[in-house]
Design goal:
This protein is of the alpha+beta class. 36% of the residues lie in helices and 32% in strands. The protein is built from 5 helices and 8 strands; from the N terminus they run βββαββαααβββα. The strands form 2 sheets. Strands 5-4-8-7-6 form a 5-stranded antiparallel beta sheet, sandwiched between helices. A 3-stranded antiparallel beta sheet has the order 1-2-3. β1 and β2 form a beta hairpin. The N and C termini lie far apart (111 Å).
Length: 212
């Protein structure tokens, strides 16, 4: 078992302790054999990795982008809070536990799952990288949403593709503003092209005075 020991200098040391009974010739227990292995470096490394994991997860869960990591079988192996909230808003309530280990076909509407699958295949099969591709879909309330989708292959130490990382940025509000501006510009152009009178703007430019 693992034991934590504090020495006279106040420093912590982790030990892996094993104890085996020592039997005599007549079978009676006459003592024990103790084996102690110092595992302080190993425990320190484990604690450092755990701190890094917690820090990374905290950062990921507080950024606005939705991030999802999938393995080669298209199953989700990491989803962050923004991704859970985005999916709850668009396709219905799910928890992180319900999403992990699932493919898009088990969660999303068929047409949307097909779109995601085709994109994922290009990344997983061909190693292609997709950056900021605009994509739209209709949520369960009939509202259209626009996203910028980026997907990159995830490789192991042998440079083999073992999955992908997907990042989604919601640009629905921006698209709505762009569409309203385009509509306004179209109306203004139509008005200008069909106006019979000359359209001009008054300014505060002084009228020149000529002497004859």
């Amino acid at each position: 078992r693992e034991e934590l020991v504090v020495d006279s200098n106040g420093e912590r040391h982790w030990q892996l302790v094993s104890k085996v009974p020592l039997a005599g010739e007549n079978g009676e227990i006459g003592g024990l054999i103790g084996i102690v292995t110092d595992i302080t470096k190993q425990k320190d490394a484990e604690e450092a990795r755990e701190r890094e994991r917690v820090l990374l997860r905290t950062i990921l869960d507080h950024i606005p982008n939705a991030i999802c990591v999938k393995d080669k079988d298209h199953r989700k192996i990491l989803v962050i809070q923004a991704q859970v909230e985005r999916m709850n808003e668009h396709i219905g309530p799910h928890t992180e536990e319900e999403l992990l280990g699932k493919t898009d076909f088990e969660i999303c509407p068929p047409h949307l799952a097909e779109d995601y699958f085709r994109e994922d295949q290009r990344v997983l099969r061909d190693g292609a990288t997709m950056v900021n591709r605009p994509m739209s879909h209709i949520d369960m309330k009939g509202q259209r949403h626009w996203e910028l989708i980026s997907k990159i292959p995830m490789r192991n130490e042998k440079c083999e593709i073992v999955g992908l990382v997907g990042v989604s940025t919601d640009i629905s509000a921006l698209r709505e503003v762009e569409e309203k501006l385009a509509e306004s510009e179209s109306k203004f152009r139509l008005l200008a092209e069909n106006a019979r009178d000359i359209v001009f703007r008054y300014g505060l430019v002084p009228v020149p005075h000529y002497e004859y």
